[in-house]
Amino acid sequence: MWRVIVMPVLLLGLTAGLGTPVQAEAVQHKKKLLVELRREGGFAGFDDRVRVYTNACVRLSRRTGPTVDKCLTRAEWRTLKYHLKRLKLGRSQARPQGADFLKYTLTYRKHRVSKYHLTKTWAPVVSDLERFLTKYWAPD
Question: Residue 98 phi/psi, 5° resolution?
């Protein structure tokens, strides 16, 4: 009789201990956005998006292809946070004349600003985020 009661409880306890891998779990629980980059325009028709969450994971997407979720290395995370501490968003720039300009939009600390020419403090942040897109996003 005790086998009928104890065995299911033991099996339930064993299966409860098995979970998703830490990285997969971290990707699933990315609720708080740290910074987002949108790169749009140009002759190539870019529409790229890099979202970095406070758990050091990123969501990457392009105009075509899949959306990819990855987690940054410690070095990448540390470098990005260093550059973000020095970031001065400023004001959005007016759209220049012409059709081949790239528009960069950063969302950080509940502020969204667009630039066509990267400033001194924007360049390292945009460079980091573009590097993540190149490194981790892979087409089908």
Answer: 120, 170
The Cα 52–Cα 55 span in angstroms is 8
Locus of tokens 């998006």? 49
Give the C-alpha separation, 50 to 75, whole Å: 18
In the structure, how many helices (H) and strands (E) does the chain have? 4, 6
R_g (Cα) of the chain, nearest Å: 21
- For the record, the structure tokens of 121 come out as 């403090």
Spatial distance between the Cα atoms of 62 and 77, rounded to a whole number of angstroms: 22
Q: Strand 33-41: give its sheet, edge to edge.
A: 68-71, 57-61, 46-53, 33-41, 102-108, 111-115
Q: What percent of the chain has pLDDT over 90?
A: 60
The reported pTM is 0.75
How far is residue 140's CA from residue 138's CA, in Å, rounded to a whole number?
A: 7
Q: Which residue has the tokens 């993540």?
A: 132
